Amino acid sequence: MQRTAFYKFHADRGAKFVDFAGWEMPISFGSVIDEHNQVREKGGLFDVSHMGRFKLTGRHVRRLLERVLTRYITDMADKSCRYALICNEQGGVMDDVILYKFPSHYMLVVNASNREKIFNHLHQVAKDENMIAKIEDQTESTAMVALQGPKVMEKIGEFSREVPTLKRYTFCEKNLLILKMTISRTGYTGEDGVEVIMGSMMAEKAIKLLVKESPNAEENVMGSVGLAARDTLRLEAAMPLYGHELSETIDPLSAGLQFAVNLNKDEMDRGETFIGQDALKTILADGIKQKRVGIKFDGKRTPRQDMAVTVDGNKVGFVTSGCLSPTLGYPIAMAYVDVAQSEIGTKLAVDLGNGKHIDGEVVALPFYKKS
Amino acid sequence: MASKTDRTYLESHEWHKVEGDLVVIGISQHAVDELSDITFIEYAKESGSISAGDTFGEIESVKATSELYCGIDGEVVEVNNELVDSPQTVNDDPWDAGWMIKVKPSNPDQVKSLLSAEDYDAKS
To answer: Residues of A with CB below 8 A from B60's CB?
Structure first.
C-alpha cells in the first residue's frame, strides 16, 4: 500500500487507517461525528494526496481536454478551476474531475480509484487522434490537503492576505520558504475553504506552518478529519462521489450535473465534440429514465448503498449513499429513482432487508447549505 | 487494549458477564473502535426465550449495520432501553453503562464455554 507525505502526521494524531484505492488513508481520528461537526463549526484538515494529479502540456493539450471533458474549457481564465466529467462513448461517467488552468499548462485532479484508467484514456485519445500532449502523473511527487470550514479563511489570512480574496474556483500560487504551493478556493464539504497542492518532500513542514497548530488542542481552529467524515460532509452537501452517485453506467444528465456538460460544445469557439456527446444528446432526446434525488427519512436508521427504494412495495430505484446526518439529525440518502417518482414531496421507502423499511420523502438538494 | 478478563466472549465481539444468577451481554471496546460512532440500537425482543446463536438486536454506526448475537440459551429478562435514546453510551462505556441485555441462563455453566478474554483478543 502507498502512503501519502502526511502518514506520520496522521499517525501522531491517532489516525485509524484504511486501504483506499491502494493508499493507506486515515478513515477517522476518533469520533467521526466530532470530526464532521468540527468542519461545520470551525475547520478541518483533510489529506487528499491520494487523488490523482496530472500535469498536461503540449501543443494540442487544450484540444485534447475539449475532446475528453464534458465541459467547455477554452474560455477558462488563468488561475481558475473548473469541475467537469469524463465520459465514455455511451455517455457513462468514467470520472469526475477538476481542471486547473495555469498560464503555462493545465493540471487535472482525478479520483484516486480512476487514476490509472484516466491516465491511460488521455494517452489513448491523444494517440488515436494524433495530438501532441504530454501527460505527467505528479500524484506521488506532490501532496494535497483540503482545509474546510467557516473559520478557515480567517486562519489562512494570518499566512496570506491574498488567499481570502480569491473567488470560488480560482487559485493562486504562493511561496512558503522554498516550497511552492497552489491554493484554490475549492472543496468537497459544503463549507468555505481551500485545497492546497504542494511538493511532497516538504509537505509535512508546510502544513504545520500553514495550520500553525497550537500545543493546546482546544485553541486549534483546524482538526484532522478522516475519509469517513469527508463522506458524510459531502453527502449533506449533495456532492456526488464516484463509485456511488457516478459510474460508467450512469450518465451525467441523470446525475443532475447538466451544469458541467456542454451538449453544443462542437458549436462553441474552438470547441470539439466531446466523447459521449452524441450519446448524451440521444439520452436527452429519448427522455431521462432515472434521476438523482435526495431523500429525508423518519427515525434514526441509516439507509445504505444499493438498498432498494420502493413506492407501495414496488422497486423504483436504489440508494447510492446514506447516513444519519450529523448536522441535521435525521437520516438522509441520495438515490436514483424513476423520473415519475422524483418530484419533491414524493413519499417513498427504503428496504433495509429482514422485512424492515424506513419511510421518507424526496427533498430538494443539497440537504445542507452553509449560512 | 486488552479485553476485560471478568467475562467471556463471542468471536462476533459480544461480551458475557455473570452477575448473580444472570448473564449480562454487551459489546467489546474493540468492536466499538471498529464501528466508530454508534447511531442506532434496536432489540429483537424485550423478554422471552433466546438460544445461543440467536440475534438479540441490531446496531448501526456511521460505518455499518451489524447484528448482535447471544452466546447462551435462556430467558431475556431485561434490555437496556436507555441505549435506544442515547446509543452514544455504548461508545463512551461499552464495558459497563453500555450493557445491552440480561439473560437468565438455562445452564449457568454454558457461559464458561465461550472465548476467554485472551482467546478473544487473539482472534480480533
So the answer is: 301-302, 324
Query: Cβ contacts (< 8 Å) between B37 and chain A: which residues?
Result: 31-33
Residue pair A328/A321 in contact (Cβ under 8 Å)? The answer is no
Looking at the complex, report in whole angstroms how far the Cα of residue A326 sits from the nearest Cα belonging to chain B: 10
Fold topology of B8-106: OB fold (Dihydrolipoamide Acetyltransferase, E2P) (2.40.50)
Superfamily of domain A289-363: Aminomethyltransferase beta-barrel domains (2.40.30.110)
DSSP class of A2: B
**Distance set, CA A286 to CA A39, A247, A279 (Å):** 42, 20, 11
Q: Give the amino acid at A133.
A: A
Contact residues, chain B, for A352 at CB < 8 Å: 65
Best B63, B86, B92 residue to mutate vs chain A (most A CBs within 10 Å): B63
Per-residue pLDDT of A243-289, as tens digits, reads: 999 999 999 999 999 999 999 999 999 999 999 999 999 999 999 99
What is the interface pTM, i.e. ipTM, of the complex? 0.88
CA A293 to chain CA mean position, Å:
18
- Would the CB atoms of B63 and A228 count as touching at under 8 Å? yes
